[in-house]
Write a structure and sequence with these properties.
Belongs to the Dus family. DusA subfamily. Belongs to the dus family. Strand 3 (61-66), helix 4 and strand 4 (87-92) form a beta-alpha-beta unit. The chain folds into two domains: 7-244, Alpha-Beta Barrel (TIM Barrel), CATH 3.20.20; 253-321, Four Helix Bundle (Hemerythrin (Met), subunit A), CATH 1.20.120.1460. It is globular. It has an eight-stranded parallel beta barrel, surrounded by five helices. It is built from 16 helices and eight strands. The protein is α/β, with parallel strands linked by helices.
């Protein structure tokens, strides 16, 4: 079997920024983390520190790119390698109107020959792994013939790692949010890809809610990618190292809060990062426990206020330690 990260957290727009990834890294030392999708235009012409900056503690970390020009993607792949990313991934799955108008994302499922040229250009430009994240098909295209042709065509470039979101994307008639839920999951087709292309590394994505479901795919597949569940109930990652990587379990929730409080103070001191930019990713940390509502409420009511600092996190965690909701919320931070 290839040396591959058997669990990853999906790239998610507006969610998997550097603060989210630093939080997730505290929970799991081994899970592969992805950036949000960044367009080639943004990388080439935008604020690279803001778009690409990450902490060394985030490794292993991959950059996901969106684009459809071979030269631009090759240039961005070189930039990703220079910045120290462990992998660069091409988005062939996002169904939003913005990516359709730019001829990238899920609409590229209809152009496997173009995707092969894109991947070939990226592979020639860098030594780090170049991977693809796709859907199984789009719109009226037949699912298995589309997926089989896509994987066969793109893998001919030498690309050997495919992450497949096991849903069709409907570019006409469904919103991006609906595209994450409405099209039926076809896990069987992703498993069939592995059977038909056993030499490739195949990862599955879509609707996987916990580590039990992730582990159920691993006897047949190489890797599992978890999306919203890892964001909304992030503490599931804390047991990933023990269960999937033969490592030690992650820290308890309160140790994570203490570490994130230190992180928030450092980010405020060195980059002027407001607490709310960090704490918003942590709202689900105590999901399912007594006091979880008080945790969320205290952060939501206080983290955005002027002068709010890491003490907001410490105070919110103290409410959880009480193990109950409180009728008298702690004072707002002024």
């Amino acid at each position: 079997m290839k040396n591959v990260n058997i669990l990853s957290v999906a790239p998610m727009m507006d969610w998997t920024d550097r603060h989210c990834r630093s939080f997730h890294r505290l929970l799991s030392r081994n899970t592969l983390l992805y950036t949000e999708m960044v367009t080639t235009g943004a990388v080439l012409h935008g604020d690279r520190e803001r778009l690409l900056g990450f902490d060394a503690a985030e490794h292993p970390v991959a950059l996901q790119l969106g684009g459809s020009d071979p030269a631009d993607l090759a240039a961005c792949a070189r930039i990703a390698e220079d910045w120290g990313y462990d992998e660069v991934n091409l988005n062939v799955g996002c169904p939003s109107d913005r990516v359709q108008s730019g001829r990238f994302g899920a609409c590229l499922m209809a152009e496997p020959d173009l995707v092969a040229r894109l991947i070939g250009a990226m592979r020639e430009a860098v030594a780090i792994p170049v991977t693809v994240k796709s859907r199984i098909a789009i719109d009226e295209m037949e699912e298995w013939p589309t997926l089989e042709r896509f994987v066969r065509t793109v893998s001919a470039t030498g690309c050997d790692h495919f992450i497949v979101h096991a849903r069709k994307a409907w570019l006409k008639g469904l919103s991006p949010k609906e595209n994450r839920d409405v099209p039926p999951l076809r896990y069987d087709l992703v498993h069939r890809v592995k059977q038909e292309f056993p030499h490739l590394t195949i990862a599955i994505n879509g609707g996987i809610r916990n580590l039990d479901e992730a582990a159920a795919h691993l006897p047949a597949l190489d890797s599992v990618m978890i999306g919203r569940a890892a964001y909304e109930t992030p503490y599931l990652l804390a047991d990933a190292d023990r269960r999937l990587f033969d490592g030690l379990p992650g820290p308890d929730r309160h140790a994570v809060v203490a570490a994130m409080a230190d992180y928030a103070e450092e980010a405020r001191r060195t980059r002027g990062t407001p607490l709310a930019a960090i704490s918003r990713h942590m709202l689900g940390l105590f999901q399912g426990l007594p006091g979880a509502r008080a945790w969320r409420r205290h952060i939501s009511e206080n983290a955005h206020l002027p002068g709010a600092g890491p003490e907001v996190l410490i105070q919110a965690a103290a409410l959880v330690r009480r193990g109950r909701e409180t009728e008298t919320p702690m004072p707002r931070i002024i």
